[in-house]
Amino acid sequence: MSDGGPSEGGTGARRRWAEGGPERLYVVTGGRNRPAERVALDLVALIVTRGVPGPAAHPEQAAILRMCTNPLSVAELSAYLSLPASIVSVLVGDLIDGGKVEVRAPASAAALPEAALLEAVIDGLSRI
């Protein structure tokens, strides 16, 4: 009796496809491992939706557009979609090219309040 391995196209092959095997990832990105444009995306870059998914959008891209009504990082998208960050970067790059999302830089250390101010707030709250 056969186990339905990959050479036979049985349940083994279907399971790998559903689990994000390399064949599925190749199809999702069209064989690319980098965004079409030279978009600098790192894991903490925040993605925000600017448009709605069109009828020709891949399911993964439509999911990104639905999830990013509030800013999410590339790392968060990767975790929520159960896809490698490199694949998410390709998908997000395509959405950027299409004007469907925008990239926001994460808050820098310069934008955060000084430690002395935070300590004063904590002290004040602890006295209440």
Write the layout of secondary structure elements.
Blueprint: H1 11-18, H2 22-29, E1 46-49, H3 59-67, E2 72-73, H4 74-81, H5 85-97, E3 101-104, H6 115-127
Antiparallel strand pairs: 1-2, 1-3
Helix pairs in contact: 4-5
Structural account:
There is one protein chain. With 128 residues, this protein is mostly helical. The protein has two domains: 1-31, no CATH class; 34-108, Arc Repressor Mutant, subunit A. The chain is 46% helix and 8% strand. It has six helices and three strands, in the order ααβαβααβα. It has helices spanning 11-18, 22-29, 59-67, 74-81, 85-97, 115-127; strands spanning 46-49, 72-73, 101-104. A three-stranded antiparallel beta sheet has the order 2-1-3. Helix 4 (74-81) crosses helix 5 (85-97). The N and C termini lie far apart (73 Å). Residues 1-17 have low confidence and may be disordered.
- Helical run tally: 6
What is the global morphology?
elongated
Number of domains: 2
Classify the fold: give the CATH topology of the largest domain. Arc Repressor Mutant, subunit A
Quickly name the level 1 CATH class of the largest domain: Mainly Alpha
Tell how many strands the DSSP assignment holds. Answer: 3
Beta fraction: 5-15%
The ordered string of helix (H) and strand (E) elements is: HHEHEHHEH
Spatial strand arrangement across the major sheet: 2-1-3
How would you state the average pLDDT, rounded?
A: 75
Query: Helix- and strand-based class?
Result: mainly alpha
State the CATH architecture of the largest domain. Answer: Orthogonal Bundle
Helix proportion of residues, in percent?
Answer: 40-55%
Low-confidence stretches: 1-17
